[in-house]
Each structure stands twice: as C-alpha cells, then as structure tokens.
Design brief:
Blueprint (H helix, E strand, L loop, with lengths): L4 E3 L5 H10 L4 E7 L2 E8 L2 E7 L6 H7 L5 H14 L3 H7 L5 H20 L5 E5 L4 H5 L6 H10 L10 H13 L9 H13 L4 H9 L2 H13 L11 H7 L2 H14 L6 H25 L3 H10 L2 H10 L9 H19 L4 H9 L10 H15 L4 H7 L10 H6 L1 H11 L1
Antiparallel strand pairs: 1-5, 2-3, 2-5, 3-4
C-alpha cells in the first residue's frame, strides 16, 4: 500500500498499526478528530513515540499532573529544548530532572493513555506521511508498541453504564483483548464432542472432522497453534497445516480445553444460522478455488471464518448495556472491524485477517485480494445470487473465464445436505 489514509469510522487503529507493521512503515501517522491531533511515529514498522495536543496528553502537562515536574521548570525546559533544537525529553535528561528509567516508565504510561483514547474513536481521519522527524528518531526515549497497545486495550474506565457507541466499543475492545475470552460453543456441538469422548473409541478422526466444519473450533485451534513456541514464522492458515505440525493428541487437548471452558451462545438460534452460513460459504469458496486452480483448503478456511465478528458481537453485546433495537445495527456496522481485532489478538494469518476484515469490501483488500474476492463471491452467491457482471466489477482478480457459475449454484443443494447433517 503506497497511500495510507482514510476515515477511522471504517478502519480501526489496531488495523492501521498492523498495516504499518506489515509494510515496515517509517514515518508519521497523523490522527485527527474535532480539533484533537495525535502523531504516532514509526521506524521500520515499529511504533516508537507518540505526541498529542489533547489537554493532559502533552508531555509537560502530564508530568505536572503526576506531580513529577513543576510548571515553572516545564516552561523553562520547553524553551530550552526549542532554543537548542532538541527533544523536550532530552532536555529533561540533560538537566538531570529525571533518570532515564523513570522517564521511560512515565512516557510509556502517557502513550497508553493516548492510545486508550484514540482506540475508541469511531470518527475522525488518519493519514500516513513518510516524514519521520529526526528528533523522534534520535529521541532518548522510545516506547514499546506491543506493551502500550495491550495496556490501552485493557485500560479505561468501567463502562457498565455505557450509553453511547464510543463507550460500548471501548468496552468491546477490552473484552476482545482479554485472555479470558472464549468463543461460545453450541450445546449440540458440545454434546456431540462429549459423546465422542465417552465412547472410548479412537475419536481423533471424528473430533477433528467436526472441528474442520466448525468456525469457533477451527479458529481456536489456529489461535493455539499460532501462539505456541514451536510455531513456524509462517502462520498456519488451515487446520490441515496445523495437523501437519502437531499431533492429534495435542490438538484434541486444545479442543477439550475449549469445550470445558466455553459458554453457550446468548442467542443460540442466530449463532447456529451464522455458523451454518459460514460452513456453506467455506464449501462454496473451496469449489470456486478449485475451478480457479487456487489453494482449496485455504479458501475453505477463509470462508469458514469470514463472519466470525458477528458471532463475537452477539456474545459480547447482548447485555443490559445495549438495547435490543441497537444490537442489529452495531453487529452490521462493526462486525468486520471487531472480527479483524480478534484475528489480530489471536495471531491469525494475514490471509484470514484480510478475508475477515474486507469480505464485504474486496476492493479495499491489500494483502490477499484474490482470496477476499473468492469469499465475497461465495458469500454473495449464497445470499443474493446477483448478476455475473456485478461480480466481475467487484472481483477484478478473479478470472471468470475459468468459472462455471451455473455449476456452482447447482451444487448448493449438496452443500446444504452437508450442512444439515453437521448441524
């Protein structure tokens, strides 16, 4: 991506950070909303520093609020840094106002504060510039992006009485970031797995076959495998790849752990319909990939996980904080961003992340546009069965000369039978 700019209502900050990391960006990310401007400085994909004009987020103001710097000293040091062309933080160290470790801690907490605020923004603009000020690059203090982002997602005030979208989304981001979050499992699926274990037979093949058809089981296995110490640099995209790296016993242990800790979905009928659609989309995406000569298993998994954000939101938002008439709009508007945030947290592959994030907007996909288009086509053939010309316009990377759309549609009955037998 040569140009990185847009609206924060369409692209979340974690997603932007990920793009900067993947593309090894060096420069300045400018964020603005209602007169508030924040600058995030990157060096080779790593976030190294943050500045903000928001009251309480300027370095001097923040240190004064903490009681670690007087107002008169702050004014003097600011003028000193401007006169000598050095960073304000460098002036603090040169005048022995702070020890480096103490200043590092304070500025890391300030970065967390600034990130916590901007993560909840659902409006505003962002623009990346290739210009990286030398002061930011040579500054004596640089922050840890991973620590700051993780703390930002987990921080913030209690939103039990939230009554606006910003607060709801901030609470949602913290829940997604929590290691305690486990996706829901349908009671019927849990019962089927329990019956396999109680049978005392060789159950590995049955359990893994069921996991292969189930969105939440597959996603969690990929989460566990990609987070493990022995995971290769190339993240697993499919269950088949995971099975090639880990023994059946290890994978079965992960599934058992998930089943024993998971809760049933709060809207089981709706979630069941979503999971059935996910499996249909996976099977159809697999057939499309086969006709195109692309990797069928990867297309299958992309289709299986594409709408995981909806399952996630139905589990996290159905509580007293969200009115019944507000839930459908929130799910529709934010399921792709929420699913993308979950995929980041779970360390899913870039290909899966792209399909989760952009399956409704394939023209915005940058890393895996072909597979996003395959999922888009599969999803729409199942939902609307629109005309081929509109699909060609939305999916420029697909060679429609290789596709037989009629045969794909005619094969949907077989897919329905497979889904009915599974659910």
């Amino acid at each position: 991506m040569n140009k990185l700019n847009g609206n924060l209502g369409m692209t979340s900050l974690p997603e932007i950070l990920r793009l900067c990391s993947v593309q090894q960006k060096t420069g300045t990310l400018n964020l603005s909303r209602a007169g508030i401007n924040k600058k995030l400085y990157f060096n080779k994909g790593k976030l190294i520093y943050i500045t903000s004009n928001k009251t309480g987020e300027r370095v001097g103001e923040y240190l004064i609020q903490r009681g670690e710097l007087t107002r008169s000293w702050a004014g003097f040091l600011l003028k000193d840094s401007q006169r000598n062309g050095i960073a304000f933080t460098q002036s603090l160290l040169q005048k022995n106002i702070f020890e480096k470790d103490k200043l590092q801690k304070a500025l890391s907490e300030l970065a967390t504060l600034a990130l916590s605020d901007v993560i909840s923004w659902t409006s505003g603009n962002f623009e990346f510039s290739d210009n990286l000020p030398q002061q930011a690059l040579d500054g004596p203090i640089q922050i840890s992006e991973a620590d700051a982002l993780q703390m930002a997602l987990k921080s913030g005030k209690d939103t039990s009485n939230a009554d606006n979208t910003d607060q709801i989304l901030r609470d949602l981001a913290r829940k997604i970031a929590s290691d305690k979050f486990v996706p829901p499992i349908l009671p019927k699926t849990a019962s089927k797995l329990e019956s396999y274990w109680e049978s005392g037979e060789d159950i590995a093949e049955k359990v893994l076959a069921l996991a292969h058809k189930n969105q939440t089981l597959t996603a969690n296995l990929l989460r566990v495998v990609n987070a493990s110490v022995g995971c290769p640099k190339q993240k697993c995209t499919t269950l088949k790849q995971a099975m090639g790296l880990y023994s059946h016993e290890q994978l079965l242990g992960s599934i058992l752990a998930q089943v024993t800790s998971a809760h049933p979905p709060k809207q089981p009928d709706t979630v069941s319909q979503l999971l059935q659609h996910a499996l249909r989309c996976a099977c159809l995406a697999e057939q499309i990939a086969a006709q195109l000569g692309e990797n069928e298993e990867e297309a299958y998994t992309c289709g299986l996980l594409h709408n995981i954000g909806k399952t996630l939101l139905l589990q996290l938002l159905t509580n007293k904080n969200v009115a019944d008439n507000q839930l459908p709009q929130l799910v529709k508007k934010f399921h792709q961003n929420s699913g993308a945030l979950l995929s980041l947290r779970w360390n899913l592959s870039p290909q899966l992340h792209d399909c989760i994030k952009y399956y409704h907007m394939p023209q915005q996909a940058k890393e895996s546009p072909l597979f996003v288009e395959i999922v888009y086509l599969s999803h729409n053939l199942l939902i609307t069965r629109g005309d081929e010309e509109s699909y060609k316009e939305q999916c420029p990377h697909i060679d429609f000369e290789l596709l037989d759309i009629d045969s794909l549609i005619n094969g949907l009955d077989l897919i329905d039978k497979l889904v009915d037998a599974t659910f």
